[in-house]
Specification:
It comes from Streptococcus sciuri. It catalyses: a uridine in RNA = a pseudouridine in RNA. Belongs to the pseudouridine synthase RluA family. The strands form three sheets. Strands 5, 6, 7, 8, 9, 10, 13, 14, 15 and 16 form a ten-stranded mixed beta sheet that branches. This protein has a four-stranded antiparallel beta sheet with strand order 1-4-2-3, covered by helices on one side. The protein starts with a strand and ends with a helix. It contains six helices and 16 strands. A hairpin with a 6-residue loop joins strand 7 and strand 8.
Length: about 300
């Protein structure tokens, strides 16, 4: 892929490129794997000294697919796509990435889609992943440079994901709140997590959208990204997610997976500098539970 930059001060090429999130690794890839650097149309190297208003053009080599990731044909619900990013609606029940327990994953399906489309960059770059039984929006970068630029936003907590969750418990759930409690791995499991003083700092915010007796639909957003954070935090305050038997959620209301859905995604497109904001409606199993709850209240 080709990108162009204009120098606003006298610096070396590599310094200008670093300011645009071109890492040392990517610069080495450009140098040794078929890329190129031009300054005002003339081939130059990374230590060339630029003048103000010099135009730097780089060609980033195409990315070959990871051999260990098997392409699998599967219909994708594509919400948005351009040359840099892909946003999907992930169904629940499908893992994001392969593991010893999961082989038919979103990553496998995306690799097949890239191959079918004949894209020049074939590596699958997941920016925001979801647990297997969480539904909703997933963001992919379609090349390594786009991934690197969004990684900086992730590190700065500048990518906002919001979730809907159905929670139920005894007592009163405040209309809005902050859950700040450290999360650690459970002593007797490599999968489950718990609130414990030995854990890592974790911060969750929420707002109640609608109440159905002792069940509430809440809008949730994260300030940290701990494993199972939303599920653990709401269980900790006595309002576990419906369908989440791992953390004490009710299983009698018609939903058999954790009632968690990523409904919105917001980030700054690093190439256009404009805000990208994507939303999506609830899934059928969410809607069915809410309809029943409304009928019974």
């Amino acid at each position: 892929m080709r990108f162009e930059f204009v120098a606003d001060k006298q610096v070396k090429v590599k310094t200008l490129l670093k300011s645009h999130d071109i890492s040392k690794g990517l610069l080495a890839k450009i140098k040794f794997k078929g890329g190129n650097i031009w300054v005002n149309g003339v081939e130059q190297n990374a230590i060339y000294l630029l003048d103000i208003d010099d135009k730097v053009t780089i060609d980033i080599p195409d990315e070959k697919p990871h051999e260990t990731l098997v392409p699998i044909a599967h219909k994708l619900n594509i919400i948005s796509e351009d040359e840099h990013f892909l946003i999907l609606d992930k169904p629940y029940g499908i893992a994001s990435i392969p593991s010893k327990n999961h082989t038919n994953t979103i990553a496998n399906f995306v690799k097949y889609y890239y191959q079918e489309k004949g894209y020049s960059n074939q590596q699958v770059h997941i920016v925001t992943r979801l647990d297997k039984d969480t539904s909703g929006l997933m963001l992919f970068a379609k090349h390594g440079y786009a991934h690197a630029r969004l990684d900086k936003q992730l590190q700065a907590k500048a990518i906002e994901k919001r979730y809907y969750a159905l929670v139920s418990g005894k007592g009163e759930l405040s209309d809005c709140g902050e859950i700040i409690a450290p999360i650690a791995r459970s002593q007797d499991s490599i999968i489950t997590r718990c609130v414990h003083s030995s854990g890592k700092y974790a911060h969750t915010s929420y707002q109640v959208v609608e109440r159905f007796g002792n069940v509430a639909l809440v809008d949730v957003w994260l300030h940290t990204g701990r494993t199972h954070q939303i599920r653990v935090h709401f269980s900790h305050i006595g309002f576990p997610l419906l369908g989440d038997d791992m953390y004490g959620g009710r299983m009698d209301l018609g939903i058999t997976r954790q009632a968690l859905h990523c409904h919105s995604l917001k980030f700054i497109d690093p190439f256009t500098k404009k805000q990208r904001y994507q939303t999506i409606g609830l899934t059928d199993d969410f809607d069915s539970v809410i309809i029943k709850l409304k009928e019974n209240r």
